[in-house]
Design a protein that fits this description.
38% helix, 384 residues, 10-stranded mixed sheet, alpha+beta, 12 helices, single chain, two-stranded antiparallel sheet
Length: 384
């Protein structure tokens, strides 16, 4: 396994490209629209020599700790979902650390990028390969990147992205002009145009709304019942710098427990229900990480190199594709879940530990190999 992940001559990028195509074909066959989900996944790691490890925010524990973080793309259609691409995030501390980069076998062309920039590159790669998806969904880390929103809008890629409540918007078209110099002011004249009207934060705007401004919608099927929430929709204008503005749809979701979620979308021709359903699909990226870690072993790798990490994730994604394919293939006959599929697969694997004699021999062989290694280490120490 270590040879397969570290030294075996196969290209994980080629495998992932093929996986993207096959997953797109399978999910498109469900008859429902397909969403491209973007998020990051974290893994706690000790030490400082695993590729791109460092102290950073890990969503798996909800705080900063030592670990690795990767940006992941997945496809989702209805209740089906599958990861298709992954890229390890490089902290700035690794950018010019040539010693650690060499030991971790990080390619020279890999440089530090922000996670939104990595997500943008992934989305562009999907478009280049003609991967079928109807929209992109992501959380506030990416939604607050106005460069990403602007790039997607320019490429006519539909998106719905969560944003933080301090984002400034206008409910009227934004105009720009040069501010007048105050009378008797000794300062320089203004050279850059600024927004004419006052902007309001999303939290301030939401505070002005009443219950009558929200509409209750059932936006996703749950395990036992339909999931519903209250939604508000408003056309807004978002200043993104350099005197540029995006005209977007603001979606405010108020869950039944009172929790608020703000999202921006460029889906002007779609109904509120359609946008709400697409925003609700983002929950399945959490399902990808949950099942990936609990059922497939996504976080159970013991390699330090850049290639080893991505190859391990690629093998996990292939296993995830197998599970998704089985769920869709037998959906009309039986409801298959990831734990059930794992148990069915495990029951077909013939183990070398089938008999007591075999088990004893394997244990003895392990002991002999271990003793031989100890003797070799002793000899090397003596020579030294």
């Amino acid at each position: 396994m270590n040879h397969l992940l570290s030294d075996s001559p196969w290209n994980y990028q080629d495998v992932l490209a093929d996986l993207c195509i096959k997953t797109s074909e399978v999910l498109s066959g469900t008859g429902q629209e397909v969403g491209l989900l973007i998020d990051e996944v974290g893994f706690r790691k000790k030490g400082r020599h695993s590729a791109c490890v460092g102290r950073q925010y890990l969503g798996c524990i909800g705080k900063h700790d030592n670990g690795q973080v990767a940006v992941v793309a997945g496809l989702s259609s209805g209740k089906y979902y599958c990861p298709i691409d992954v890229a390890l995030f490089m902290p700035k501390s690794w950018q010019d650390d040539h010693i650690r980069r060499k030991k971790a076998k990080i390619p020279e062309n890999i440089q530090h990028q922000s996670k939104p920039d990595m997500a943008g590159a992934m989305i562009a790669s999907m478009r280049k390969m003609a991967i079928n998806f109807d929209y992109v969904a992501f959380d506030a880390l990416y939604g607050n990147s106005f460069d990403l929103l602007s790039a997607l809008h320019a490429e006519n890629i539909l998106f719905v992205g969560d944003v933080r409540d301090n984002v400034k918007i206008s409910v009227e078209p934004i105009t720009y002009s040069l501010p007048e110099k105050p009378p008797h002011s000794k300062g320089r004249k203004f050279k850059h145009k600024r927004v004419d009207q006052a902007l309001t934060s999303l939290s301030q705007y939401c505070g002005q709304l009443g219950l009558e401004d929200f509409k209750q919608l059932h936006f996703r099927d749950g395990t036992k019942q339909k999931i519903s929430a209250y939604f508000h929709q408003k056309e807004i204008w978002l200043p993104i710098g350099n005197q540029q503005t995006l005209r977007l749809q603001l979606i405010i979701r108020k869950d039944l427990d009172g929790k608020l979620k703000y999202s921006l979308a460029n889906m002007h021709q779609e109904s509120l229900l359609t946008i709400a359903k697409r925003q609700g699909q983002r929950v399945f990226v959490e399902k990808i990480f949950e099942e990936g870690k609990n059922q497939i072993g996504m976080g159970d790798y013991q390699v330090r190199s850049w290639t080893g990490f991505h190859r391990h994730m690629t093998l996990c994604f292939l296993a995830f594709y197998y599970m998704t394919y089985q769920k869709i293939k037998y959906r009309s006959d039986v409801t298959l879940t990831a734990p059930i599929i794992r148990k069915l697969v495990a029951s077909t694997i013939i183990s070398r530990w089938e008999t007591l004699d075999t088990a004893i021999e394997l244990c003895l062989q392990h002991v002999r190999d271990y003793q031989r290694q100890i003797l070799m280490n002793l000899k090397q120490d003596c020579v030294t």
